[in-house]
Amino acid sequence: MSLSDRIIKLSDSKTLLMANKARDLKAKGIKVYDFTIGEPDFNTPDNIKSFAKKSIDNNNTKYTSNEGTKRLREAITIFLKKEFDIDYDISEVIVSTGAKQSIFNAIFSIINPGDEVIIPAPFYVSYPEIISLAGGKSVFIRTNQNDGFKITPEKLEQAITPRTKLFILNNPCNPTGTAYNESELKELVEVLKSKNCYILSDEIYHKLVYDNIRFVSFAYLAKEIKERVIVINGVSKTYAMTGWRIGFAAAVKEIIQAMNKIQSHSTNCASSISQEAAYEAFSGSQESVKLMINEFNKRRRYFYENLSKIEGISCFKSNGAFYLFPDVSSFFGCRYKDKIIKDSDDFAEFLLEFSNVAVVPGGASGEPKCVRISYATSFENIVNGVEKIKEAINYLVETNNISINKN
Fold it and tell me: Of the N and C termini of the chain, which has fewer Cβ atoms inside 10 Å?
């Protein structure tokens, strides 16, 4: 007897592996500077928690409709209109147990074995794994620091084939922190207008944009092909509600019905209490969100400025989400104890062992030269963590007798 082939082929999440290693060290009483998990360190805003508590007291603890409560879906349609000026009926919205489940349901609703899915690389680690489970084939468009980790319309055009069924765009992007501006998105839309494929726009970090970037939803720019666009969003990142597990998808009724069918045989409805909390998140005061965004921006600037000063590290100045994605390939080939650092996996292991700094290797996201650093942690951790990274790099430079030009 053996497990299914699709499960054997499935990779473990490098993000969770590194996060678990950091957690194990913390359990032993070791101080760890943990930059692994993309989870806001803020508490869920008080108005949202209070609303959820009242929901429990009012005994709103039963199953809801599979696609989510009517009032939450109505709140989402109002949110989509107010935030992005896009119109959806509640029949075109489904609430799921987190945005990742919405992505999973969407891909399984669309992809047949052998279908191609275009993904800009670096990418969110779960995209290709979900595509593989659905029997599809991931086609990657490579990007790098020099182009701001952004694809061009020319690269998108070249990647599309008769077998292309879906294009996924994560904007702002995990792991790079790249955010596209309106003109850049318009150019991609122009390419896709004449193509026969779906577009999944993962906009879970839409509120977290900086440097005067104005976020524009892909669906707003692609109104002419709205029937092919699936918008993914949720409350986890914007409202510090990761554990509440609420995401949603907005698309034409045919796609939502297909997703609803899959959900009915997997998780069924999302938590009724969490749905009530999400209703308040979308409908209530947004003051806490503004405070969180300002704090993230402060952390981003400090981390980037100080990380960029470290000998041998090359770092793109992200303008979205809460990640930095520095290139650490200058240190590949360096020896540490009886080991040689060959890639970002080895570099991440070295940082954790030498300085108790936990980061995520970029190989699982399609870029083995880089590591992902989350600044969704306290400013104090960032200040001290940067110093620990400096110490680790100085050690490599001195013990390996290497000379690197400062960036």
Answer: N
In the chain, count H helices and then E strands: 14, 14
Least confident segment among 1-5, 162-166, 401-405 = 401-405
Q: What amino acid is encoded at 22 in this protein?
A: A
CA 322 to mean position of chain CA atoms: 9
pLDDT tens, residue by residue, 239-275: 999 999 999 999 999 999 999 999 999 999 999 999 9
The amino acid that residue 119 corresponds to is I
Dihedral sign from CA coordinates of 116, 184, 372, 206: negative
CATH of 61-283, one of 3.40.640.10, 3.20.20.80, 2.40.10.10, 3.40.50.720: 3.40.640.10
Say if CB 259 and CB 102 are below 8 A apart: yes
**Can you read off the two tokens belonging to residue 320?**
């979205």
Per-residue tokens: 229: 């666009």
Question: Rounded CA gap, 65 and 56, in Å?
Answer: 18
Contact call for residues 200 and 131 (beta carbons, < 8 A): no
DSSP bridge partners of 166: 117, 198
Q: How far is CA 48 from CA 96, 157, 245, 273, 286, in A?
A: 18, 44, 14, 11, 11
d(CA 298, CA 335): 35
Residues in the chain: 407
Cα 188 to Cα 123: distance, rounded to the nearest angstrom? 17
- CATH number for the domain whose boundaries are 5-43+288-399: 3.90.1150.10
Domain boundaries defined on the chain: 5-43+288-399, 61-283
- List Cβ neighbours of 339 (8 Å cut-off, separation of 6 or more): 346, 350
| Cα angle 168, 173, 177; round to 5 | 165
Please tell me the distance from the alpha carbon of residue 158 to that of residue 318, in angstroms, as a whole number. Answer: 26
Q: Residue 86: phi, psi to the nearest 5?
A: -120, 140
pLDDT tens digit sequence for 98-107: 999 999 999 9
Please, which pLDDT band fits residue 373 given cuts at 50, 70 and 90? very high
Same fold, 5-43+288-399 and 61-283: no
* C-alpha to C-alpha distance for 216 and 140, rounded to whole angstroms: 24
Which long-range contacts link 151-158 to residues 24+ away (Cβ below 8 Å)? 151/120, 151/188, 152/187, 153/187, 153/188, 153/190, 153/191, 156/118, 156/188, 156/191, 156/192, 157/191
Determine the Cα–Cα distance for residues 214 and 220; give it in Å rounded to an integer.
Answer: 13
Report d(CA 390, CA 310) in Å as an integer: 6
